[in-house]
Amino acid sequence: MTSAREPNAKRVALVIGSGAVKCAAALGLWKVLIREGIVIDMLVGCSGGSLFATTMALGYDIDDCIEKTRRLWNREITAKRHLPSLLRAILPRLFKFDERFGMLDDGPMLRSLTSAFGEQTFADVRTRLYIVATDFHDGEQVVFSEGRLLDAIRASIAIPYIWPPWQVGDRLLVDGALSSPMPVEVAIKEGADIILAMGLQSPYPRKVKSVSRFAFQVNSIMTNNLFKANYAFHNLAHHAEIIPILPEFEKPISLFDTDQFPYVIAQGERAIEAQMPYLRRLLAAPL
Amino acid sequence: MEITVKQLNQTSVVSMMGSLDALTADEVTRFLSAQIGSGQKQIVADLSQVDFVSSAGLRAILAALKESRQQGGDLRIAAAQPGVEKILKMSGFTSILKDYPTVDEAVTSFGS
Predict the structure, then answer these.
(1) Could you read off the pLDDT of A59-73 as tens digits, one per residue?
(2) Residue range A135-152, pLDDT digits in tens
């Protein structure tokens, strides 16, 4: 799905925000766009969305995208606790607590990412790709458009408390959702005229019975409010047309429910089908 | 987009039907601005027949909200469908404007 546009055609961006397995809904959206012959000029991914944005940008077909993300995102990547971090949390002075804290060992995740992307870089993508992370030291958004894909994704999905931050160059990076859970501003800045924005707010745990659930609850509260604040600003600040694509899920989808991919993808298809009449008219209308 | 207006007490109830988006936003903006310009400062936007709002639609609502308030009035939303209500909440609109489940409640609110 390369960007071979006719002159004056509107530039279409797909922004896939955070949402773990639910981000697979973007594949359903993409399936419909391919059917309709609508070219995506750029992909922007954040947190879980970065995985799907990257596989799509590399030009894999839907089935390959599903297979790759299923291998990347599963319970095995959370199987191993990071004992040094846990010791540092309990006895910070003795074990020298530092900013590279994460309750889980990122070894399994790194092996998955290496297996999927190896040394591929942004130069290997067929569709312009931007991946968003957050600088741990100053909170600023960091947008990757060059370098290794593995580094960008590992940084973007560095969920605080869960996985350690990731160093790229001289920056220590964490989850892109901490600066912008649905980074439509990247698409605006890069000149998109129409932005399909798939954003999923963080769920709230049903029961808070552990430190990690407590941390997740607090994280969800803050990122959801940030989501709304950013969305409000970017909708109003610019003339680009932002079309929210909001898949509905009638059943709970947990962080690693990759067996729900078919359902999630179907919901993504439904969500974009509802907007297709408008999208066709919008693409046909003069600039 | 089909837009109709009726007067209830001193309030203009503006009912829109369809999608409030980049292709209809200018028309909505002109209509609401004309209402306000003709002295109708209390506006209820009846969204019961609106099935979608995009960023352009939100900007149209905001423009009318600002204009009505600058004239000493207000624009209030009524009867938004669940999908539209979700977008209004997600975009923070429900924190800056008043939103009612029915047109009657929105109209009554101008009296209180």
Answers:
(1) 998 888 888 888 787
(2) 999 999 999 999 999 999
**The one catalytic residue among A41, A106, A151, A175:** A175
> Catalytic annotation on A61?
no
Mutate to test the interface with A, among B19, B29, B90, B95 (most CBs of A within 10 A): B90
Query: What's the CATH code, domain B2-103?
Result: 3.30.750.24
Only one residue has tokens 């469908």, namely B81
The runs of H, that is alpha helices, within chain A are: 25-36, 48-57, 62-72, 83-90, 107-117, 149-156, 184-189, 211-237, 261-284
B62 touches chain A (CB under 8 A): yes
Q: Map out the domains of chain B as residue ranges.
A: 2-103
The pLDDT > 70 percentage for chain A reads 97
> For residues A25 and A267, is the Cβ–Cβ distance under 8 A?
yes
**d(C-alpha A118, C-alpha A112), whole Å:** 9
Interface predicted TM-score (ipTM) = 0.82
Instruction: Supply φ then ψ for residue A180, to 5 degrees.
Output: -165, 100
Paired strand residues for A1: none
**pLDDT over 70 for what percent of chain B?**
99
Which tens digit of pLDDT belongs to each residue from A199-230?
888 877 778 888 778 888 888 899 999 999 99
Under 8 Å CB pairs connecting chains A and B tally to: 55
Q: In this predicted structure, what is the pLDDT of residue A56?
A: 95
Pairing of strands A12-16, A42-46: parallel
Task: Quote the pLDDT of residue A1.
Answer: 42
Do A184 and A242 contact (CB within 8 A), yes or no?
yes
- Nearest-Cα distance to chain A for B21, in Å, is 8
Probe site for chain B from A278, A279, A280, A287 (most B CB atoms < 10 A) = A278
Q: Would you call B92 and A232 a contact, using CB atoms and an 8 Å cutoff?
A: yes
Among A140, A130, A236, smallest CA distance to A186 is for A130
Tell me if residue A47 is catalytic: yes
Closest-CA residue to A59 (of A46, A86, A40, A79): A40
